[in-house]
């Protein structure tokens, strides 16, 4: 099947501030109807990348291509309003003296009078149809955010750039608005580049995540892929707590208190880290000083005592002090499971969920 050509292509952009590389060789592409999330910690260069795509800042090198046409390179630099791009930032400000409908119609030829149908339809899609003649101060923060979204969508931008657009909202409201926003963006077949530092937001919104660190994209892929095949320990740790079990590779095998792990590709004598998320540890009870028998899928059990256990709402988090070297490992259980501190239990690691990295 032929691939849809990208609507937005960012080609090897680089930006320096005060002699410091803030964005280095960032490339990505976004197809119509696709949401790509630039995800990374504060200061990693996400917003700078987005501002360059928007045209409010200019790269030192690299190109921005929209629908096959170069909108910015060493020679040319189209201003934001000529790039077919919609912008939505956290500090979206509605014009307080204009009605909701007038705000949405602001960038449309003929204003609200000539575009009432489209404006009404867009507002309807975010459940604000009856607010067309209301004023911003009569709306809650979440409602205003929805107005800002449809205002950005009204001119039918081919590309929508969003910088932490939901961060001003409280948690429950945010989930709802994210879902509605996503639905409208998909219906409009908009290519979306969304900046966030929250893994949950990226997992919820993105078709593709571009994980950024120190100005570079370190990994790109579907949320499922990035979560389950992190490129390194930091990528794994960005999405959840992690546990680390250390060992040294010999003959493509590493001995640990949880049994042997296959560690191909690591030279003899290389220290390695076996990384596993808390939900992938198995907990088993103590059978008069013995644990469960080894299995090929879970390896050998290691004895631990409960350090503390907390109920987190959706799951219980249990911290264990391991007999083998007193390190703490964390396990989560999707149930109420609150063993007393000091209780001996046995842990195994799901082999198919372990990642091996050089330490
Ligand atoms: N105009 C500027 N002049 C100098 N330094 C800047 C400028 N804009 C950004 N920077 C620096 O570039 C780095 C990356 O900033 P950027 O805003 O792109 O990061 P970010 O990943 O979006 O972070 P956050 O989530 O905190 O906004 C930061 O160290 C910032 O201080």
Automatic annotation (TrEMBL):
UniProt KW keywords: ATP-binding, Cell inner membrane, Cell membrane, Ion transport, Iron, Iron transport, Membrane, Nucleotide-binding, Translocase, Transport
A Pfam family in this protein?
TOBE_2
Q: Does the keyword Cell membrane apply?
A: yes
Q: Which GO terms describe its cellular component?
A: ATP-binding cassette (ABC) transporter complex
Q: Where is the ABC transporter domain?
A: 8-239
BP-aspect Gene Ontology terms:
quaternary ammonium group transport
CDD domains, per the entry: ABC_Carb_Solutes_like (cd03259)
Looking at the record's lineage, which domain of life comes first?
Answer: Bacteria
InterPro entries, per this entry?
A: AAA+_ATPase, ABC_SmlMolc_Importer, ABC_transporter-like_ATP-bd, ABC_transporter-like_CS, ABC_transpr_FbpC, Mo/tungstate-bd_C_term_dom, P-loop_NTPase, Transp-assoc_OB_typ2
**Which N-terminal stretch is annotated as signal sequence?**
none
Q: Give the matching PANTHER family.
A: PUTRESCINE TRANSPORT ATP-BINDING PROTEIN POTG, SPERMIDINE/PUTRESCINE IMPORT ATP-BINDING PROTEIN POTA
**Descriptive protein name:** Iron(III) transport system ATP-binding protein
């Amino acid at each position: 099947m032929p691939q849809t050509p990208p609507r937005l292509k960012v080609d090897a952009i680089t930006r320096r501030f005060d002699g410091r590389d803030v964005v280095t060789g960032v490339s990505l592409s976004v197809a119509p109807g696709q949401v790509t999330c630039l995800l990374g910690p504060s200061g990693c260069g996400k917003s700078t990348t987005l501002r360059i795509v928007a045209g409010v800042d200019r790269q030192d090198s690299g190109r921005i291509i929209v629908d096959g046409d170069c909108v910015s390179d060493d020679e040319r630099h189209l201003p934001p309003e000529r790039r077919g791009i919609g912008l939505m930032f956290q500090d979206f400000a509605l014009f307080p003296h204009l009605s909701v409908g007038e705000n949405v119609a602001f960038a449309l030829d003929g204003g609200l009078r000539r575009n009432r149908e489209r404006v009404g339809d867009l507002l309807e899609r975010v459940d604000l149809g009856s607010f067309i003649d209301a004023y911003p101060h009569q709306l809650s923060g979440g409602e205003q955010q929805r107005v800002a979204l449809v205002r950005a969508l009204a001119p039918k931008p081919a590309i929508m750039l969003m910088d932490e657009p939901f961060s001003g909202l409280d948690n429950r409201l945010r989930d709802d608005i994210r879902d509605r926003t996503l639905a409208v963006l998909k219906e409009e077949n908009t290519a979306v580049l969304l900046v966030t530092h929250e893994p949950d937001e990226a997992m919820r919104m993105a078709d593709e995540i571009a994980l950024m660190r120190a100005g570079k994209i370190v990994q790109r892929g579907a949320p499922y892929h990035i979560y389950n095949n992190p490129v390194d320990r930091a990528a794994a740790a960005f999405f959840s707590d992690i546990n680390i079990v250390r060992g040294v590779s010999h003959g493509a095998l590493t001995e640990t208190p949880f049994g042997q792990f296959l560690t191909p590709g690591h030279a003899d004598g290389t220290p390695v880290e076996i990384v596993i998320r808390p939900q992938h540890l198995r907990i088993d009870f103590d059978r008069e000083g013995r644990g469960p028998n080894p299995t090929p899928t879970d390896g050998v059990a290691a004895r631990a005592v409960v350090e503390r256990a907390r109920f987190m709402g959706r799951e219980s988090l249990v911290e264990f002090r391991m007999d083998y070297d007193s390190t703490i490992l964390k396990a989560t259980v999707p149930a109420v499971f609150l063993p007393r501190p000091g209780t001996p239990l046995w842990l195994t690691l799901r082999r198919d969920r372990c990642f091996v990295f050089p330490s």
